[in-house]
Sequence to fold (263 residues):
Amino acid sequence: MSGFATVGAASDAHSNSGRGRLRHDLVFRRLPAELPDRPVRVLDAGCGTGAMALRLAAAGHPVTAADASDGMIAAAASRLSARPELATRVRFLNAAVEVPDGGGERFDLVCCHGVLTYLDEPATAVARLAGMVSPRRRRGVLSVLTKNRGAIGIREALRGEHTLALDPIESGSGASVGHLGVRPRGDTAEELDRLATEHDPTPLPWQGVRIPNDHRANEWAPWPDECASALATEWAASTRDPYRQIVRLVHTLARRASDGSCP
Ligand SMILES: C[S@@+](CC[C@H](N)C(=O)[O-])C[C@H]1O[C@@H](n2cnc3c(N)ncnc32)[C@H](O)[C@@H]1O
Fold:
């Protein structure tokens, strides 16, 4: 994972940018709607520099923040050190999403955001992540955020980067160079839902993340009132077709069905 150690600063800058915050805001607005109104055990697999892990910890949840890169874990730990009140709620783990740990630990919310896109294929990781969602009586949730295969090339085209846009649009390769300078792949929400179903969790309605504001420049830094109206527009479009079909990122969720026993 040395590659990610070297893009850590760029990843953190993106996470804190206008587009990055919009992404976190949209995901963080959806997650509580799918969780019980009490602290739940969270796994953030591929936590990166810890933006979502810290938001979830600040909301009261105990979080295991895992990543395959020591450099990213160090960056997340550094971010946590600025929030000492959250220190007891966050623990770090060096682990790859697709490698079984054998520990048998289960979580009520398993997040894997912005990671599948860097893997050669999604099935192995989804199988492992679904296996870590807590058993039926706790109605655990799997939350996956990744690049939308169906819309690759749209941002580039809207920005006028026609050379970058043409290849993925013509070839249907499902991959394009992203903001970190690597060439991630995309998946479809339908395929991710199908993979989750193979391992039991039942898909919830998927949501799109970033449509009208996805082509904004990396430097886009909206004022709070613009942030609020951008979020409102994105949220409205995120559940409605045809807008949802051309989002940059698909956010799929799946929940284990209740077996009727007490939590
Ligand atoms: C773009 S960052 C996303 C970070 C964070 N989840 C977010 O949504 O902002 C991708 C992260 O995935 C991690 N990663 C990449 N491949 C991984 C793997 N196979 N297992 C675990 N983490 C991985 C990288 O080290 C990096 O921290």
The mean pLDDT is 90.
